[in-house]
């Protein structure tokens, strides 16, 4: 038995090319938007992983002559470290060495020699136990209060504020990408509806004959829908085949950018699977839309 | 594979269901196209199950419209049409296919599907009814052979002559052994010899229980086969009994012709 019966010459009515090209373009755009969303999602994941479980504590330099100030600041740092080391949930607390501090300052203040006399704030890197959640079971607000009571001018930074803004940005980009997907799906559906309507008009005499010899609407709709599914799959595959090199190109360009803000656009396996499923999705959308359009139109015939 | 019809074989299916109700019955049927004048006014008639009638009338008298009403391509403006005892003007749309599958139609313009071969055209009624391909390939070539198209089974309609197309159309109309066969000028494009052969096909079907209504201009046909006539004139339908009926039956009003 033939896989797909075609009493209707739907394959030969010239609407097929338009639909294939349309779906190809749409799937191309959808693939780019989806890959963009996934990449942003991956970046945010990584940022989250990198900064959660760490705190940065800043100890301000005390006023006074430079030598005296340095000594007192060192003492403050030592007291803060003492407190931190007995704090449950803190895995490790370590003051950044002077060399490292100066290296951090260099882009803003110039060579280390020139700032030898400047009182610099000290930074303490704290790693908290990730087993107890992102905050390591610490009462961050309490810790900050106790530290600043003991040593004036101590601030605790858990990177939340900085991260929150980036996450907002990432989420904004993601919703933009989803809107693109929704628009693309809607535009494809509208195109499919138009193509189906013109195809229905072309084949109206044959449809009438099929009706008169006792065909159910479903029998007729199946033939249109089957054809649309094939076209949707074909167009989708072409669009995806165009999108993959484009994505690889973007990944290649991004690879050379330093700074960690643009990570390599490597997608995880499930994400690739979702991208590769796009042609199936476009085939499904084309099929369902066509079926509904045909059934609706047929229900107005006798 | 396709589904089998509930009643099994398409050739040997039960015929009991049609015994009582007339195959077709018109009650005060009126028809007008748009806002035009009424083509039919108060048409009343019935086709008793198993009867054979000719439908006559001048060109434009409405023979094709009357047939369209019978094969459910048109709805009457008023009145009721009952097919096999069911009021089809009140049947919900999704049940129409079941009624239509009991009707075979030979259209005046054949309405063959151009991109399908003769075999596939004739197979259509079986396929839309879900008959298996196995049965399709058993019955369709047999019938095409019978109508003299054995060598044209794979031909597309455009390559066939008018008469050949007509025979494909007739084969399509009778392949599913309909309970009601409607034919619009079915012998218009064929020579006398083939016309007679086709008429005999209709008569054979009628003997097996199919109700037959043939619209025709051909006086030769009407003379040769003395079945009763339904005659359309000025929007009304008149029943003209066959010569043999008038001889045998005292009341010529109702009751259709039986095979002579």
Automatic annotation (TrEMBL), chain A:
InterPro entries membership: ABC3_permease_C (IPR003838), FtsX (IPR004513)
GO biological process: cell division
Topology in the lipid bilayer: Multi-pass membrane protein
Record localization: Cell membrane
Keyword vocabulary terms for this entry: Cell cycle, Cell division, Cell membrane, Membrane, Transmembrane, Transmembrane helix
Main location: membrane
Membrane spanning stretches: 20-40, 230-252, 272-294
Gene Ontology, cellular component aspect: cell division site; plasma membrane
Listed name of the protein: Cell division protein
Taxonomic source organism: Pararhodospirillum oryzae
């Amino acid at each position: 038995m033939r896989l797909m019966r075609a009493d209707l010459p739907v394959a030969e009515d010239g609407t097929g090319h338009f639909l294939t090209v349309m779906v190809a373009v749409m799937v191309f755009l959808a693939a780019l938007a989806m890959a963009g969303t996934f990449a942003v999602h991956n970046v945010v994941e990584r940022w989250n992983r990198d900064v959660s479980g760490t705190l940065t504590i800043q100890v301000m330099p005390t006023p006074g002559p430079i030598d005296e100030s340095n000594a007192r600041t060192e003492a403050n740092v030592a007291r803060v470290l003492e407190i931190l080391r007995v704090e449950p949930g803190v895995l490790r607390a370590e003051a950044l060495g002077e060399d490292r501090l100066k290296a951090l300052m260099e882009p803003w203040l110039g060579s280390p020699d020139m700032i030898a006399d400047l009182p610099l704030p000290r930074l303490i890197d704290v790693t908290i136990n990730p087993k107890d959640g992102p905050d390591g079971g610490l009462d961050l607000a309490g810790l900050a209060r106790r530290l600043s009571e003991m040593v004036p001018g101590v601030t605790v930074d858990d990177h939340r504020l900085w991260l929150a803004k980036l996450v907002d940005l990432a989420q904004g980009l993601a919703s933009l990408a989803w809107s693109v997907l929704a628009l693309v799906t809607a535009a494809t559906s509208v195109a499919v509806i138009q193509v189906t309507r013109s195809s229905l008009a072309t084949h109206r005499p044959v449809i009438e004959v099929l009706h008169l010899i006792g065909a159910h609407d479903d029998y007729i709709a199946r033939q249109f829908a089957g054809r649309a599914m094939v076209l949707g799959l074909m167009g989708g595959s072409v669009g995806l085949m165009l999108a993959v090199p484009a994505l690889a190109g973007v990944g290649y360009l991004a690879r050379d950018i330093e700074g960690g803000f643009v990570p390599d656009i490597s997608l995880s396996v499930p994400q690739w699977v979702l991208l590769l499923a796009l042609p199936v999705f476009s085939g499904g959308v084309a099929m369902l839309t066509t079926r509904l359009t045909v059934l609706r139109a047929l229900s107005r015939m006798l | 594979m396709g589904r089998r019809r509930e009643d099994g074989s398409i050739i040997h299916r039960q015929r009991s269901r049609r015994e009582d109700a007339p195959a077709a019955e018109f009650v005060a049927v009126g028809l007008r196209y748009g806002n035009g004048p009424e083509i039919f006014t108060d048409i009343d008639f019935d086709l008793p199950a198993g009867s054979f009638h000719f439908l006559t009338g001048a060109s434009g008298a409405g023979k094709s419209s009357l047939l369209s009403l019978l094969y459910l391509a048109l709805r009457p403006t008023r009145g009721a049409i009952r097919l096999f005892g069911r009021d089809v003007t009140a049947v919900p749309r999704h049940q129409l296919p079941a009624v239509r599958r009991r009707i075979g139609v030979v259209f005046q313009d054949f309405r063959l599907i151009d991109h399908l071969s003769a075999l596939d055209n004739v197979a259509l009624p079986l396929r839309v009814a879900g008959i298996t391909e196995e049965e399709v390939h058993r019955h369709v070539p047999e019938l095409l052979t019978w109508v003299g198209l054995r060598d044209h089974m794979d031909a597309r309609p455009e390559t066939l002559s008018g008469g050949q197309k007509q025979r494909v159309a007739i084969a399509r109309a009778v392949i599913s052994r309909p309970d009601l066969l409607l034919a619009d000028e079915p012998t218009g494009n064929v020579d006398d010899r083939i016309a007679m052969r086709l008429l005999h096909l209709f008569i054979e079907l009628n003997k097996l229980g199919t109700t037959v209504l043939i619209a025709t201009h051909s006086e030769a046909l009407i003379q040769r086969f003395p079945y009763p006539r339904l005659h359309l004139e000025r929007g009304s339908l008149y029943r003209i009994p066959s010569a043999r009926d008038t001889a045998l039956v005292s009341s010529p009003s109702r009751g259709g012709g039986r095979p002579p």
